[in-house]
Design brief:
The chain is an alpha+beta fold. It folds into two domains: 11-162, 2-Layer Sandwich (Beta-Lactamase), CATH 3.30.450; 234-293, no CATH class. The chain has seven helices and 13 strands. The protein has helices at 38-44, 63-69, 73-76, 81-84, 96-110, 164-214, 218-229, and strands at 18-19, 22-23, 48-52, 58-61, 114-115, 119-120, 123-124, 133-134, 137-146, 153-162, 248-254, 264-267, 283-290. The longest helix has 51 residues, at 164-214. The N and C termini lie far apart (84 Å).
Length: 293
């Protein structure tokens, strides 16, 4: 490739248009020298541009492109494209280099622009010097730049739109939709639980009212309802046969003179309190310390 080749300028280029043959710029963007004035392009048509030679060596870049890719112009000019922008090694299956190279080769071989689909292509943070990786998404278009009056491709114009924020917003919205779905599911389950609990309480209230009205085995019915509903047992002392309301350490009060007085016992919730083989049911129990047993 001859470095002195000029840009081809068809008749329609007076307005600085783009044609299906590639990238062309109006006469005001060309100086009398044989080298295209890409800086004039950057000034007249702001955007994210990277200029390459056919060997994919970086020739120039717009300030907007440098800002978006976190690079410095003097540090990337003259270097190979994929030396400056390699794949992120932390990605499980990166395809940025492969896809971009395929698109550029397609432009070189066919001489026509190629618009790529949205591409995830992370960049290194060269600004802070930490060399960490920053997630990026791009919408790239690659165009050939021809020599004046010829079909010889002298440069490649890589134009991108940084769509990172849009893609990240879309991902966040998808996550929020899943969270909302899970919350709705949880809310529905809570509503079902509340409905079941309300019915249980209503039935228990009716049963308790009937028990108090009729009499008889009222105490037994109350204890049964306490266990069924998980209600607190407000009794100070419990006796043999009662179900332990709370797991923990209990003080046992035996009949005076009983020689089998153990003093303290550990009881698991739901288990009946034991009788004393000496004083039988003349023993009472009182909670000293709740424990997880």
């Amino acid at each position: 490739m001859q470095a002195s080749a000029k840009l081809a300028i068809p008749k329609v280029i007076d307005r600085g248009q783009e044609t299906d043959r590639g990238a062309f710029f109006g006469p005001t963007l060309l100086k009398k020298s044989t080298r295209p004035d890409f800086r004039a392009l950057f000034r007249s048509r702001p955007g994210l541009y990277l200029v390459l030679d056919p060997d994919l060596i970086i020739v120039d870049a717009s300030d907007e492109y440098l800002f978006a890719t976190l690079t410095w112009c003097e540090e990337i000019k003259g270097r190979h494209l994929f030396e400056v922008f390699p794949d992120n090694p932390n990605e499980p299956k990166p395809d940025g280099v492969c896809n971009l190279n395929a698109s550029l080769q397609r432009v070189l071989e066919g001489g026509a622009p190629h618009r790529m689909s949205i591409q995830k292509y992370d960049v290194r943070d060269s600004v802070s010097g930490e060399e960490s990786w920053v997630e990026k998404f791009w919408a790239p278009v690659n165009r050939p730049v021809f020599g004046r009056g010829s079909r010889e491709i002298t440069h490649l114009l890589h134009e991108v739109e940084d769509v990172t924020q849009a893609m990240q917003l879309a991902s966040w919205m998808e996550e929020q939709a899943l969270v909302n779905m899970e919350q709705r599911s949880t809310l529905k389950q809570m509503q079902r639980d509340l409905t079941r609990r309300e019915r249980q309480l209503i039935a228990a209230q009716e049963r308790l009212s009937e028990t108090l009205r009729v009499g008889g085995h009222a105490a037994w019915t109350v204890r049964e309802l306490q266990i069924q509903l998980g209600a607190p047992d407000g009794r100070r002392y419990l006796q043999p046969g009662d179900l332990t309301p709370t797991s923990g350490k209990y003080r046992a009060y035996h009949q005076r003179g009983c020689e089998l007085n153990p003093g303290e016992v550990l009881m698991r919730a739901g288990k009946p309190f034991p009788s004393c083989i000496r004083c039988r049911d003349r023993v009472l129990y009182r909670l000293l310390l709740p424990l997880l047993l």
